[in-house]
């Protein structure tokens, strides 16, 4: 099937930066987390803990910044258009994809060859992107329950006691790491299953031609010959 064009308006530069920060932070958190849980390299435990806590702080701050920016920065509500509206609306139900959950699930389960065209994010994406900030906060909370300077403070100590011991908290924290790993792998796969245009946009801010979509008509209204090589910077006003 033909695909919607990938325009910079769908992913403004502030969101490209937050995406980069998320990626780097998550990779370092995962690597340092493995090293803390399995200290297979002698002498690096102190560095691993320092990197882990620093990246955790950046990760949480970046998540909160992204949520705030969603209410400040405008973006295109769908692929294939340069029309702008407040970004947070892309995470809410839209007329473009309000009734597409079943079709998206069939597509992800390889029961349907083509996914629905509509909003910038599919319905499962919206659900995931809304849940991820909550998961990050839970991850941060369990991390503070394990960190020596905070482990004995009020709510953190109470949680360790609630689950049985700090070791149980450690297991919960470690398990959540694999949830993030699974999310990263699925996100990378689903974003690029039909081509590398999404990654070229998020990492190189390069536009890619394709079908033009009118979010007010909820319909394809043409095709942009921006180019299949992803030549960024060309405006179509």
Describe this entry's structure for a reader.
The protein is 54% helix and 6% strand. It has 237 residues and is mostly helical. It has a single domain (8-224), classed as Transmembrane di-heme cytochromes, Chain C (Fumarate Reductase Cytochrome B subunit), CATH 1.20.950.20. α4 crosses α5 (154-163), α4 (123-146) runs antiparallel to α6 and α5 (154-163) packs across α6. Residues 227-237 have low confidence and may be disordered.
> Can you write the helix and strand succession as a string?
HHEEHHHHHEE
**Mean pLDDT, all residues:** 88
CATH-derived topology: Fumarate Reductase Cytochrome B subunit
List unreliable stretches of 5+ residues: 227-237
How can the largest sheet be summarized? 2 strands, antiparallel
Class based on secondary structure composition and strand pairing: mainly alpha
Query: How far is the first residue's CA from the last residue's CA?
Result: 26 Å
**Percentage of residues in helical conformation:** 40-55%
**How many domains in all?**
1
Q: Looking at this structure, what is the CATH superfamily?
A: Transmembrane di-heme cytochromes, Chain C
What share of the residues does DSSP label as strand, in percent? 5-15%
Tell me, briefly, the overall form.
elongated
Strand order of the largest sheet: 1-2
CATH architecture: Up-down Bundle
- Tell me the number of strands: 4
Text of the CATH class: Mainly Alpha
Rg measurement, Å:
21 Å
Note the total helix count.
Answer: 7
